Amino acid sequence: MMSLITSLLYGLTFIAISPIALGLEQWATARLQGRTRPWRFILQPYRDIQKLWGIASNRPETASIFFALTPPLLLSITIVLIFTIPWSVGQPLLSPDPILLVYLLGLYRFLSSLASLDGATPFAGMGSARTMFLNFITEINFFLWVAALILYWQSQQKQIDIAHLVQAHSELNWQIFQRPELLLLAIVLGILILYEMERPPVGDPSSHLELAMGEKALSLAWQGRDLAILKMAEMIRLTFLVGLFVDLFLPGSWPLLNGWSPTIYFLQGLFLLKLLLAILVMILVTSARAKLRLGRVAGPAFFAGALSLLSIVFTITVHLYVYVQKGGS
Asked: Is the pTM above the cut of 0.90?
């Protein structure tokens, strides 16, 4: 019971600090592009939400009740997601099957696309089409990634819910870098995060060119408090995806030496540091590439799918080799 309360408190903490992840991304991107930004710019998302919250929501007269309910629904989905990973504190509040996470991420995109069409903004149709196209290729790759991850750990006779997967990766610690199957899946998840959040070279959230907009075109349908809720949901989703990567592929007390048992507060601080470093690495990767044309966006997705299939083949080959070495018993 105490562990669940602790997980609840840590989950709420990461919800509260999720705007810092977006602020850090915007600040570091600006600095890499040679634009001057003070350190306090990292807190700018908090000020944006506060400003938007003071503006009344102005919804289209032709929109249905679904349009008004979508921002709270999207926020609820991201809050559920944030409570499915342990955040380095043991048992999470929720521990679903990994496939459920894929469905929740897909539901997020579906609801936002459908509601933006209901709002009937000029670029809603184009933005929805692009978002659902990206969702299609991302969802296929997410299922391949989950299948490869489940196959690997089932061959190790481990349970496959999120909590046990994170625990299994945590037990590997730095030895995770000696497992080629898991290294391939780490690369795949990194690529899928770029697709899910529409970061370069897949998309450009800082663009104001309507013809290049994807998911950002959907947010043009909302104003005021609705837009504040929607922005908060986006920040939490970014924190969840990067946090999932850190929990799985930079696990536990890594990079600490074995034999040392640090306190839970130290591990939590280490997790936060790894989370920020992962965001900075993502920024370096996205800043090094320009946005691809829509016809070429599927290229990295095919590469990610090939890596997932390679991980599956590698896992099956190793399992068969061990089976043969044991004489088929």
From this structure: yes
